[in-house]
Batch of 4 targets.
Target 1
Amino acid sequence: MTAETSVAARLENLEGIREFVAEACRRAGAEGRVVFDLKLAVDEACTNIIEHGYAGRPPGSIDIRVEANGHRIAVTIADRGASFAPSALPEPNLGSDWSSRPLGGLGGHLIRSAVDEVDYEPDVAGGNRLTLIKRLGPKGAA
C-alpha cells in the first residue's frame, strides 16, 4: 500500500497532514497506538519544516509518502527547505525542572521516541528527505 500527498508548508495544513497519515495507517491495518505515534512524529517533523526549514523563505511544499508492507509503515517527508542534520540536535535535558527549561527543543526527542527508525538524507536537489519507520507488531520485529 502506498499513499502520497503534497501540501504547502503552512501551519494551517498540519491538520490535513495528520488526517492523511492516520487514514493511510488505518488502510495499512495499523492499530491505534501505531497511528498515534506516526501522526505525532510526522506532525513534529512538518512543524519543524514549516517553522525552521522555510524560515525567511516563501513557503514551499512538503511531500509525504506512506508505504506499508504488512510488517512496517514508512513515512517519507521531503521538502526544499534549509538542510539540517537531525543527528546534530542535542538531547534535551529531561531531568531538569520543567519550569526552567526553554520552550521548544523537544521535537527531535518526540520523533525518536515515537518511531522505531529515523533516516535522514539531504536531498541532492536541495532540501531534506526524512523517513520515519514504525514496525507493525512488537518492537524489534522485522
Note: The two ends are 17 Å apart (CA to CA).
Target 2
Amino acid sequence: MVQITIVYQGELRCNAVHEPSGTVLITDAPKDNHGLGASFSPTDLVATALGSCILTVMGIAAQTMRIDLSGTKVVVHKEMIVKPVRRIGTLAVTIDVPVKLDESQKQKLIETAINCPVHKSLHPDIHMPIDFNWA
C-alpha cells in the first residue's frame, strides 16, 4: 500500500506528498476551470500517469527481450468534455520508438502498452487510442 497525503492550499491549489519518498507534487486548477493553470491539474496527472505507465511497462518488457528503449517518447493529448458532466473525454497517446525492432517485438510492446495498469484502470468511456511510430 502507498499513501499519498493531499492538503488544500487555497486558491484551487493542492500539495500532494508521496509518503514513501517525501516527494511533493503541486496541482492547480486549469484556466478553463477557474484556476491559474500554473501546474499540473488533476486530470493532467491522469494523462501523465497513463503515458508514464505505458513507458514503464514497455521498459520492463523490453528488458526481458534485451532491448534498450532509451529515447522512446510518449505524448498524451488530453481532451475534456462537458456533457453529460465535465470529465476526460480522450487521452490520445502517440509513442515514438527510435529502435529497430522485428514484428514480434513490436507486437509484444503493443500488447504491453494497451495492458498497462493505468490504461486498464480508467473508465471505458474515455477514448484512449494508442498510435506507434516505429524507427
Note: The CA atoms of residues 77 and 92 lie 5 Å apart.
Target 3
Amino acid sequence: MAANQLLASMFGRPKPLIGMIHVAALPSSPGARLAVGEIARRAADDARLLARAGFDGLIVENMHDTPYVAGVQDPAVTAAMTAGWRG
C-alpha cells in the first residue's frame, strides 16, 4: 500500500495534518527539571490545543533529552513516556 493510501485509510483524508508534541526533558536526562506528572500535563495541554486547531493526529517526541544517548535508554525514559498517558 502506498503511503498516501495508508494515510487516507488511517485518517479518512488523503493529506492529514499531523502535529508534534515535544515533551520536556524526562527523568535521567541532564535537562530534567519537571516531575513526570507535570510533563504529562503540559503535553496533554498541547495535544488539546492541536486537536482544537484541527490536527488529525499527533506524534509525541522526547527531543529535549539532550545530549542524545545512542543505544539503550535509561528505563526511566521509557517509564516516563508511558506513565499517565490515557489518550
Note: The longest helix spans residues 36-52.
Target 4
Amino acid sequence: MTAMQSHICRIAVFYDGTYFSKVSNYYAYQHERRSRISLRGLHDFVAAQVAANEQMDTRRCKVVAASYFRGRLNAKQALEQDALYSDRSFEDVLMREDVALHQQLVNTRADGSFEEKRIDVSLALEAYDMASLNRCDVCVLITGDSDFVPLVRKLQALGTRVMLLGWNFAYERDGRQYSSFVSSGLVDRVNYPVAMEKVIDAAPRGGDAMVDNLFLRSDAPPQRTPTR
C-alpha cells in the first residue's frame, strides 16, 4: 500500500541495541571506513529509503519516533568491566538525537555471556503498540534476529509496512573468525529489506553523500556503543 502524497509518512525506528553495537564496532575497528555509524545520518538514510519505496517526496517522510533497546549491566558489573563511562557517553548521544532508551538488567550465564531475551520482547511490544495505535506508517527494524519474524507478521496484519536494515559481514581478529548474518526468514518476510553492507561497499568514499553521512566525521563528538 502506498501512502497518499498529501500525507506525511510517519516512520518509527527500533534498534536492537546488541546488534547495532556489533555493527558499529565492526565499522569502527574492522572495516576500511574506520568510523562509527551516525544515528542522525542513519535516520536521514531511512527517510530517503522509505520515500523511494513509498513513492513519496523525501520531505514528507519523517522519523517521528526512535527507540533503542539494550540489556544493562548492574552497577557492580559495569564498574568491574569499566563500562560506566562508555555507557553514559552513548546515552548522551541517544539524548542528543532524541532516541528513547529502553533498558533491562541482563542475566549473566555461567560462561559469562548475557541473556537478553526480555529486551527483545520489550522491543516487540513497543513496536506493536506504536503500530496498533496508528502512530506510524512504516516500522524500521535494525536487527538480524529471526525471533522478530512473528512481530513482522503482526505489524503487517495491522497494515504497517516494515523495513529491515541488516548487515552481513565476517572478519578475522587475533586468529579467530567473527561474523554476523541477517536471518533469511526475516529478510523474506519484511516489505523493504535493505542489505546495508552492500549499500555501503558499493559507494566509494566521497562519492555518495548519503552513504558518507552514515558515518561520524573525525571531528564529531565520540559515540561509543556498549558491547552488549
Note: Residues 1-5 have pLDDT under 50 and may be disordered.
